[in-house]
């Protein structure tokens, strides 16, 4: 399965980035849409996997319509953010012809990823049990909002999960309303869990030849990602609440006002606090019984806040960040996103990459993308294909490279 990628006819024709990726030779049939699934498959595609994105006719992935903002061609930046290095095929799964084409794709794939409402793939005859009987080596990854049991009927939207999963209860000002995170963080975490599960299952298949079902859900992923807050409840029965930008167990570990804009201080130990006290011109703070240890500082965080904000009002956030970092104290201004990318560039870290269109037109329009976050010394991430137009590769995939010049009845773009 998934080995004859460049053979004429059939499901061949994957673009070769010119060097091997860690996941070269891996074929993924991607039936997912919106964020969690597409983010997972994009990460795997960056590492060399050949991802075929299956989309419904006319509309495709929901996020194609989620704009503004959009690029200069009117394509949703939301869609662009999680769909590079993929080929798009339009299949109508409400027809027998579309289902037969889907089965053909799956037969030549190593991994299937889907995030339909639980039960949908089974009704289509594409459920795990049925496919396992035909393809025992297939890795089948199913992503849901609340699992396939009692929560199967609950729609899996990130905002809903942030609310019912407790994240909003610990996010926001202590005297204000619960607040969601500024991005669909639960979807992103779930996508990471999905990609990890897929890689673990592939490792098992390498050893045994056996595929398996990988299941992740948004609620379970969030509860795991709540880490210390969730552990506070599980171990000590503590139900945490909102603290603004403060930390329940460390102080000062929050944002504080300066002469111009907020400064983030992440003082994780007594040595760092002593250095902070020295830099702000009050070295005696480290010897004050109220602030001598972290536990003391947590107990007296209000008094510490008053003292530090008075000291920090003498200069702006950029000044304090520079002198504090020089003294070994973790600190930085609250940047806007443009400033964050500029900061990454200053540090020599990958931030934004430009993916050109392929010379043969297969690559679609050029696209500016956020860089893959993992660095591998031998098999680095590759940027082979910009995000595809809807159905852009349908003819190529259904009929093979030799038929690329002929229009497909299924192509929508």
Q: Can you walk through the features of this model?
A:
- This protein folds into 2 domains: 27-225 and 349-403, Rossmann fold (3-Layer(aba) Sandwich); 263-333, formyl-coa transferase, domain 3 (2-Layer Sandwich).
- The strands form 3 sheets. It has a 6-stranded parallel sheet with strand order 3-2-1-4-5-6, sandwiched between helices.
- It has helices at residues 36-46, 77-80, 96-107, 120-123, 128-134, 158-164, 185-208, 218-225, 227-236, 270-279, 294-299, 301-312, 317-326, 337-346, 394-399; strands spanning 27-30, 50-55, 86-90, 111-114, 139-144, 213-217, 253-256, 263-266, 331-333, 352-355, 367-370.
- It is built from 15 helices and 11 strands.
- By secondary structure, the protein is of the alpha/beta class.
- The longest helix has 24 residues, at 185-208.
- The protein is elongated.
- Mean pLDDT is 90; it is low at 1-17 and 401-413.
- The chain starts with 26 loop residues before the first strand and ends in a 14-residue tail after the last helix.
- Helix 1 (36-46) crosses helix 7 (185-208).
């Amino acid at each position: 399965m998934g080995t004859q990628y460049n053979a004429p006819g059939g499901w061949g024709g994957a673009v070769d980035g010119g060097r091997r990726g860690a996941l070269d030779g891996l074929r993924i049939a991607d039936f997912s849409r919106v964020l969690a699934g597409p983010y997972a498959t994009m990460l795997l595609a960056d590492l060399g996997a050949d991802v075929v994105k299956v989309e419904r006719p006319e509309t495709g992935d929901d996020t194609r319509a989620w704009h503004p903002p959009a690029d200069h061609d009117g394509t949703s930046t939301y869609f662009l953010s999680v769909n590079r290095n993929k080929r798009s095929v339009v299949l109508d799964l409400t027809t027998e012809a579309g289902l037969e084409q889907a089965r053909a794709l799956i037969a030549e794939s190593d991994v299937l990823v889907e995030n339909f409402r639980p039960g949908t793939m089974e009704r289509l005859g594409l459920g795990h049990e049925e496919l396992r009987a035909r393809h025992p080596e297939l890795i089948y990854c199913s992503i849901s909002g609340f699992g396939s049991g009692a929560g199967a009927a609950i729609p899996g939207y990130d905002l809903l999960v942030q609310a019912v999963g407790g994240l909003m209860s610990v996010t926001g000002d202590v005297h204000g309303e619960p607040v969601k995170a500024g991005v669909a963080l639960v979807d992103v975490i779930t996508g990471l869990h999905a990609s990890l599960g897929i890689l673990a299952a592939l490792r098992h298949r390498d050893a045994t030849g056996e595929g398996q079902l990988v299941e992740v859900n948004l609620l379970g992923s969030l509860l795991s990602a709540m880490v210390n807050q969730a552990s506070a409840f599980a171990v000590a029965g503590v139900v945490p609440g909102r603290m603004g930008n403060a930390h329940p167990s460390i102080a000062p570990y929050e944002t504080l006002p300066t002469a111009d804009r907020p400064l983030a201080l992440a003082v994780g130990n007594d040595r760092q606090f002593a250095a902070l006290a020295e830099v702000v011109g009050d070295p005696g703070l480290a010897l004050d019984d109220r602030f001598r240890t972290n536990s003391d500082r947590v107990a007296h965080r209000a008094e510490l806040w008053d003292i530090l904000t008075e000291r920090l009002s003498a200069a702006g956030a950029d000044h304090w960040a520079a002198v504090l970092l020089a003294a070994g104290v973790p600190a930085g201004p609250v940047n806007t996103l443009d400033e964050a990318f500029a900061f990454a560039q200053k540090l020599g870290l990958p931030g934004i990459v430009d993916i050109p269109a392929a010379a043969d037109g297969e690559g679609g329009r050029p696209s500016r993308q956020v860089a893959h976050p993992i660095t591998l010394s031998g098999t680095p991430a590759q940027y082979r294909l910009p995000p595809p137009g809807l159905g852009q590769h349908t003819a190529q995939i259904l009929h093979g490279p030799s038929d690329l010049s002929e229009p497909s009845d299924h192509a929508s773009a």
